[in-house]
Amino acid sequence: MSVTMAGVNVDVATQARPLPAKEFREVVFDVKDLGVSYSGNQALQDVSLEIYRNFVTAFIGPSGCGKSTFIRCFNHMNDLIPSAKVEGTILYHGEDMYGPEVDAVEVRKRIGMVFQKPNPFPKSIYDNVAFGPRVLGMTDGLDERVERALQQSALWDEAKDRLKSSALSLSGGQQQRLCIARCLAVEPEVILMDEPASALDPIATTRIEDLMHELKKDYTIVVVTHNMQQAARVADMTAFFSVNRGEEGQRTGILVEYDATSKIFTQPSDKRTEDYVTGRFG
After folding, report:
1. Which pLDDT score is estimated for 280?
2. How many CB atoms neighbour CB 142 within 10 A?
3. Is residue 262's pLDDT more than 70?
4. For residue 16, what pLDDT band results from cuts at 50, 70 and 90?
């Protein structure tokens, strides 16, 4: 299936299998009326959606619509910003992620994150992957754990003979796959990816997209992307965010539409979505 977006004909991802009916999907995150503000300025408001196990879910929308703010809510990254305030509810397997007993460190073990720019530590390739397990005391079978993570991130063949070399000697695409391996080494359930390929060339981007398809067999993946073609290629579900402009130019992110990716790109329910994916807006 293909659709024209911003004058470019793009193949919409065709899943290897049809998406299961909603009643047969396992809900990993149930988000209800979520809002985030910084120093009292509302950055995101009234977001409600469900994210499903072993799906790739993409967040798309113009700059400043709250996509990155939203994804950072899933592993308490906004907690690191003193002025940030999160309201509403995120249930993770039915448990309130922002309940008083929740340990943010445990959350980040189960819900890993890969950032826009590759950020390897100035250590060896091996020590980068082993870092998380060592911090968490997961040191039994460490060599096997490192190898498994590098294999899962499609980097083992390129790195197995240079594990003691600096991670900074890797190419940008290899560094990003190393960061994915570092995330996988602590055995998360969910992988959050915030623009994981935006700093990479087309070949490296394709490797990351192929990796997402492989990893969703074992993991739940949530990805923020400005690249609509990428969302169309990799995602099962897509959420389109936009911006409400208030008094004095204040911008607040809102969720416009959330549905199967093929529907978002070919038969969106909201005209704002249609205008965005066809290039008439944003």
Report:
1. 75
2. 15
3. yes
4. very low
Q: What is the pLDDT of residues 129-158, one digit of tens each?
A: 999 999 989 999 999 999 999 999 999 999
Q: Which two tokens stand for residue 105?
A: 């460190």
Crossing angle of helices 125-135 and 172-184, rounded to 10°: 20
Q: How far apart are CA 118 and CA 196, in angstroms?
A: 8
Q: What are the Cα distances from residue 243, in Å, to 67, 85, 197, 253, 276? A: 11, 19, 24, 5, 12
Q: What is the mean pLDDT of residues 46-67?
A: 95
Average pLDDT over residues 83-101: 94
**Rounded to whole angstroms, how far apart are CA atoms 243 and 246?**
9
Q: In terms of Cα–Cα distance, which of 266, 264, 203 is closest to 9?
A: 266
**Which positions ≥6 away from 174 have C-beta within 8 Å?**
155, 158, 159
Cβ within 8 Å of residue 251, ≥6 positions away: 64, 65, 243, 244, 245
